[in-house]
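Quick one: structure for this chain?
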Amino acid sequence: MMIQKSLPLIFFFFSLCSFSQTILKKTITSDYADDQREIKIYLPEGYDEKEEKYYPLAIVLDAEYLFDAYVGNAVLFAAKDKAPKQIIIGIQMANTRKKDTYFNIDNGNLTTDNEKFYQFIKNEIIFDIESKYKTSPFISMIGEGTSANLITNFLREQTPFINAYICINPTFSNFIGGQMQDYNLPRLQKKDNTFYFYTNNATIFSDAKQTRISELQKGLASLEIKNFNIINDTIITNSSISAISEAIPRALTKVFDIYSAISKEEFETKVKDLSPINVISYLENKYLDIEYLFGSNLGIREQDIFAIENIIIEKENGDQLLSFGKMILKLFPSSPLGDYYIGRYYEEGKNIKKALKHYKIGYGKMDPGDPNSDAFYENILRLGGR
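Got it. Here's what it folds into:
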């Protein structure tokens, strides 16, 4: 499947300049990789150890050329409210890529050095960052070429701790299909977690490489695992560099789709046919998932409230207006909309006293300069209140 749309990489070079001052460099003496390793740490704008706010963690292999590209996209997506801000770790591999990621060509297995690097990431990098920084449970791992192949091995963990596997221009072994079968991916549906697996094919690849990736993508597409989201992409390009620049935003668009406000596609495919009580549950769970996975307490976006408003009002005679208002107050207590819908529920039931009470509470939460405040106050006047 070819992904048609992604956010454009506008003002990319501006982003590179603007985030440079928030990047830390660190040398880790590894007990697993038998040497010192250089990593970069990007802390998002506004990061504060004293605040009760947490951030998804992204681990970028091949940092000498992937790190800046990933951070630039992450900054843009967060600015556009398409993804949460992330803590991003880049592992420099310019001099160690062959040692770290070139698998056993005879059977596709990791070499001894591959396994050491794997354990370095698992037991040193992730442990060190999670113990020092305010990370949420959601972890992404990004790699290109043979590094992408290495990433797939994290699926073998009995309790997978990587949520998003972003495999860019992957150089898979000839045995990748069998290896993925050995991971027993259907077991993931028993896990109370969400996973994403992104791979891209590209017209610049050799015929053999395209065939290998295509066969894997077809095999993965045949799986029906509710919480394991397969993202099969094909990029039409004559440059592997161009494929990288396109793959990153495409992957981010899909991996953080749940974070974004309800899109037209999401509404058409997942929302519009729900009953009022189910659409309320859908929206509540969406924001609870955002808070749990990404550490982002967004309250609730007004545009998402308005997106499902007609379902609540027009179906079942508006009987779920009370539940709708209570859900909004639970997730976003400072919003006047929760009280508005509760007030509307009581008004339609001819309980004017309670309706007026909630209209007044909602109006009291509004800024006098809010252009909607006058319309809100009209509800109070209409019911005879002052």
